[in-house]
Amino acid sequence: MIRSAVPVCKNADMGLPSADDLLILLAVGRTGRYVLAADTLGLNHTTVSRRIAALEQSIGARVLTRVGAVWELTDRGREVLAAAEAVEAAVQSLGTPSGEQRDLEGVVRLSATDGFSAHIAAPAAAAVQRRHPGVSVEIIAATRRASQQRSSVDIEVVVGEPTVHRAQAIRLGDYCLALYGSRKYLAEHGTPGQVGGLADHPLVYFIESMLQVDELDLATSFAPSMRQSVSSTNVFVHVEATRAAAGLGLLPCFLADPHDDLVRVLPDAVSVQLSYWLVTRAETLRRPEVAAIIDAIRDRMTAERNALLGGQI
After folding, report:
1. In total, how many domains does the chain have?
2. Has residue 3 got a pLDDT over 50?
3. Same domain (yes/no): 156, 85
4. Which of 72, 87, 88, 175 has a C-alpha 20 to 30 A away from that of 190?
C-alpha cells in the first residue's frame, strides 16, 4: 500500500477546510482517480492534487491513500467525506424551490453481464431516466468477477457472492441455467434421456479459457465429457447458436424460455442455480442518482420474477 505523496505539515496552523476542497474530495472519493474527478469538475488533475493537499494540511491528516492504481479514502477521509456530502446537499438545495423535490442528475456507470444488462439494467435505467432526465446511465456489458479497484464504475453486478474490500455487496436474487436444444437439433440427433447420454452431444457455452467467474466455470460439472461446439464470451451468442442447432446450450432460463423453438433437456437432472450480486462503494451508494438506479434494478428484478419467470430470474 502506497501512502499519499502529499506532504502534511503537522505544525501548520490548521484552519477550516474550504468548501470547494471538500467537493473536490467528494469527486475523488467517488471516482478513485484525480483525472476522472477533474473531468467531472471541469478542472485539471494538477489543481485537484493541489486542493487535496490544501485540504489535508487544513485538517492535519491524510484523507486519501494510494492503493494500486486508485486513491482510497482513509478513515479520516471517510469522516471528512460525510461533511463534503452535507456541503453538496446544501448547495444543491439552493437551486430547488422550497417544498419541491430536486431532480436528480449526474452520470452513473454500471457493469453487468450481457443478459442482466439487457433484461434488467437497461429497462431500470430507462425508468430512472424518464423520471429524471438529468441522469445519464452508461452500461458496460462484461462477465467477470468483482473488481477490487472499482474506480471506473459506480455499480458492478456479478454472478456469485463476491469477496470485496472497502465496498458493499448486496444480493439481488437467483437465476437458473439449464440445457436447451432447438427443435430442429433434437429431431435430427435425438433427445438425451439421461445425463450419461450427454457425451454424445456438443455443448454451446462460454469459452473455457476466457471464463473468469468460478460459478459459471463449475456450471458444466454435471457433464464434463461434453465437447465444446460454438463458444463465446457473449450469452446472446449462446442462445442464437443453440437456436441454430449448433448443439445443446447451457443457457439462462430467463433468456431461453421465451423462445418457442428451444426445448429444455433433462429438466429434472440439469438445473444450476446461480445468484446476482451488486457491488458498490458505501460513499457511491449515498449518491441519490446511484440509489435511484439500484432501487429501479430491484423493482425490475421483482417484476421479472413475478410476471415472467415463475418466481426465479
Report:
1. 3
2. no
3. no
4. 175
The residue type at 170: I
Residue 256 counted as domain residue: yes
Residue type, 161: E
Find the largest Cα–Cα distance for the chain: 83
The enclosing domain of 260 has a CATH number of 3.40.190.10
Is the per-residue pLDDT at 263 higher than 70?
A: yes
Are 263 and 205 found together in one domain? yes
Of 7-11, 226-230, 254-258, which gets the smallest average pLDDT?
7-11
Domain membership of residue 234 as a residue range: 175-273
CA distance 24 to 67: 19
Distance between CA atoms of residues 289 and 92, nearest Å: 13
Query: Which pLDDT band holds residue 62 (cuts at 50, 70, 90)?
Result: very high
Asked whether the CA dihedral 142, 148, 154, 159 is positive or negative, the reply is: positive
C-alpha cell at 15: 484552519
3-class SS of residue 163? coil
Is position 312 within any domain? no
Say if 99 falls within a structural domain: no
CA-only gyration radius of the chain, Å: 24
Partners of 64 in the β-ladder: 73
Q: Are 156 and 297 in contact (CB under 8 A)?
A: no
Indicate whether 181 and 264 sit together in one domain.
yes
CB 181 within 8 A of CB 226: no
* Angle at CA of residue 51, ends 49 and 56, nearest 5°: 95
C-alpha cell at 293: 438506479
- Could you tell me the end-to-end alpha-carbon distance of the chain, in angstroms, rounded to an integer? 40
Residues 279 and 159 reside in one and the same domain: yes
List, in sequence order, the alpha helices (H) in the chain: 19-31, 34-41, 45-59, 75-93, 114-116, 122-131, 183-189, 214-218, 235-243, 253-256, 282-285, 288-307
Report if residue 100 sits inside a domain.
no
